[in-house]
Amino acid sequence: MRSGFEPDRRGFLKPNLPPIHEVLNRSGGPADITKKYKNMKTTILHKFFGFLAIIGLLSCSKDPVDESGLLITGRSQCFMTFFDLLGSDHRTVLVSGQTVIDTTNLTVTAVARYGTYMQRVKPYCSVVTDAIVEPTMGIWTDYSQPQKYTVVSGNRQVRKTYTVTVTVQK
Amino acid sequence: MKTITHSVLPVLGILFLTLGCQTKDPAPDTLKNDLLKKTTGPAVVGDRIEFAYAIGTTEGDLRNVRAEASIPGTTGTGFSRFSWYTNRNTGVDQPVQTAADTVTNGAVSTANIIDQATNKAITLRYFYYPTDEAKGKDVSFRFSGTSSTGKEVSFQSPAYRVSSMDMKRSLALVDGAKAYVSIADMAVYTKAEVEQNNLANKIDFVYIYRATLGAYAFGHALVAPSNPDYLKDVTLPTGLAKPRTAIDKRVDVKDAQLRGTTGFDVYIDDIDLQQATFPNTADYAYGLTADQGAFVKTADGAYAAYIYVNSVNNTTKSMTVSIKRLKLN
């Protein structure tokens, strides 16, 4: 058995490697190396395209949406920020500065101008980012009685029901 | 023989292709005309449709023009004697007389061109005032003109539908006096007139002006007799029925025909009143000011209308309104 190193003719130690022709013979010769190289190249390409395919598949996956087609996000904030009420002429009927949104007690109180016909008004509101309101606002509604609206968070996990009460100046 | 046939046929084909499709250059028209409908709004009885009829000749002189409507118009129908040009210094359109003897007989209107030596090309205005008989029907016009060479040229207009609406302009309402409005009559009455003429069942709304009610502003209002709140202090005509007229206030419907001024291109047409819905609508509109109005539907469902507020006057407690009305059933 040969050791790892042995001195050459000049006395320097050199690695005790087998002659190249033996290596070539053992590996099946130059043709075998070329074949292995090609196999390795093919494997890399296959892996590369496989990786691309996985990325492609992942990129095609749809973001979650609710039944209305609205994006479901990760936000859990859930509150109303603004409320308004329009008359048949599409002008606000609310007295400025009188609307109070209580996000703790989940109430909205507002005052409509004297003479407002409360049986046919159209509510609007703003909510925190990605949240939605149920039922839909923006339709003619009878506000002679308090109305309830539920704010649903962006992740659709948190629901808070607000009671909206509008009184008319008398 | 076959060779000859093969040789002749291509030659004939080429000749047909090159010569067969040639058209002779027609002689240029020396008398031409054209038509422009200037009115953009619907043709409503009580208003007019305006056309600009242009005619010009390069040979001889212009003699006369003629317009024939498929349905005769009412008073005012016919050619104007004037053409218009824009003063380049002021930018203002100014008239210049180019026609005379403007006559309308039945459906036919005519005019003679004056100063024929210089008026080689003119544009005349033609106005058509639809009649009640034309409501809901199509009307079209055939314009024509002649020159001194005996040539005639003509232009057939498309058909235009005359609105089924009625229009009444400038009804003066006064609080406590001329305050009772009938949509069916398109008229306003005093309390005494309602009682004397037995109109108690024809009143659709009452005009009132209250600067304030209680501590709050109220202003000019149209109130249906059914309303229990805003007519408390009004002594209504004896026996006045209490119909609940649907009154839906608007602030942005500035109908150009009801307004009676140019510069606006909003028009209420038949379809607007046909398709207007009044779900859960109020029986009053208050705080009305000029250029605002209200869609109205009578309690019996017979009429839909738009009441346009031309002006209000707080001092005289009065309001001037114009009405477009459509009979629904």
Automatic annotation (TrEMBL), chain B:
InterPro entries reported in the protein's UniProt record: DUF4466, PARMER_03128_N
Superkingdom classification of source: Bacteria
UniProt domain DUF4466: residue ranges: 29-327
Classification via PROSITE patterns: PROKAR_LIPOPROTEIN
Protein name listed in UniProt: DUF4466 family protein
Organism: Spirosoma validum
